[in-house]
Amino acid sequence: MESNDTLERNLVDLDVREILLAKGEPFQVIMEAIGSLQSQDVLQLHTTFDPAPLKKVLGKQGFQNCLHKKSDDHFVIQFYRSEDTRPFWHLDNRGLEPPQPMVRALEWLDTEDGLVNGEQGLEIWNERVPAFLLPELEERGLQFDINDLENGTVVVRIYRQAN
């Protein structure tokens, strides 16, 4: 059995906005997607609102969540299994050519208030250690942990200590 540190991590994207706009019920589609996740996978769900009841249901099943409001009618919420007390937004930068992984991480850091006040963190999945990003993080007063999974993925967790 492999440890969680060597399992492949995947971001599974599911957009249910069209179902919701057609006044349909996406619960079954969402639960099927949740059921297909591997232990390290993250479900990235696109909805038209903050799905508080779904967060409660999945929370009882051991899922953490992290929400990002893109616009008044576009919410992106990530569900994943974790023992952490701090939620982490997951950003998959694998397959991107430099400097795109760094640009994406910095754009997220520049737009997210949760990291500023210590409520949430950012977990990026890269193919290598982001050497040029690390000084930027230090300059912003952010902490980070690096975990090379030795399967082609380097996980960098970025966070601010809560006051």
Automatic annotation (TrEMBL):
Entry-linked InterPro entries: DUF2249, TusA-like_sf
Tell me what this protein is called.
Glutamine synthetase
Q: Where does the source fall among the domains of life?
A: Bacteria
Q: What is the lineage of its organism?
A: Bacteria, Bacillati, Bacillota, Bacilli, Bacillales
Residue stretches making up the DUF2249 domain: 14-80, 91-159
Organism of derivation? Alicyclobacillus ferrooxydans
* A Pfam match: DUF2249
